[in-house]
Write a structure and sequence with these properties.
It is a single chain. The protein has a 7-stranded mixed β-sheet, sandwiched between helices. Strand 6 and strand 7 form a beta hairpin. 38% of the residues lie in helices and 23% in strands. The radius of gyration is 16 Å and the shape is globular. By secondary structure, it is of the alpha+beta class.
Length: 181
Amino acid sequence: MNYTEIVVKMDVANHSFLTKQMPPADAARIMLAYHSIAKGLATRGGNIWKCKGDGIILIFKTSELAVTGMIHLLSELNDLNKNPLLVNTPFLVRIAIVQNHAHSLMAVEEGMRSTELNASLNEAGHLEKKCPISRIAISEEVFKDIHSFQRLFRPTPKGNYFILEERRLLPQEKDLAEHLL
């Protein structure tokens, strides 16, 4: 059986920094907005598989849907960063997209998802950590599968993955990113 689903892992790169800089109620409001944006990806073909704190894992049926959804998410986060609470401390994410050829992760019961061992989840976790702030990192398999978006990604000098190139950082994102690297 030829089975593929697309795994997206995203994490807030500056979650600890945000929570230290903001009153708890403001940080909670911002995280609620982030989760709401992620849940809105269901209209773009994504399903939230796991959502815990600042980490979210989504499942998409195709690479094109996943990349489209994540580019849309980055756009929505640009709008979120216009919130006065985020003027000095923007909301920054790292996003990884990989393919899963094993059993369907959506078939895993919700209560068992914390302990699920899967090569694609592991690959997504490693790729997300390598991803530059406010970018999308995709595996070579995903890159080969996204014909209409390939021009937006560049290969990395080390490794077999690609990074979203054509996204300008907001001025406050650049400043904060320099402190986080």
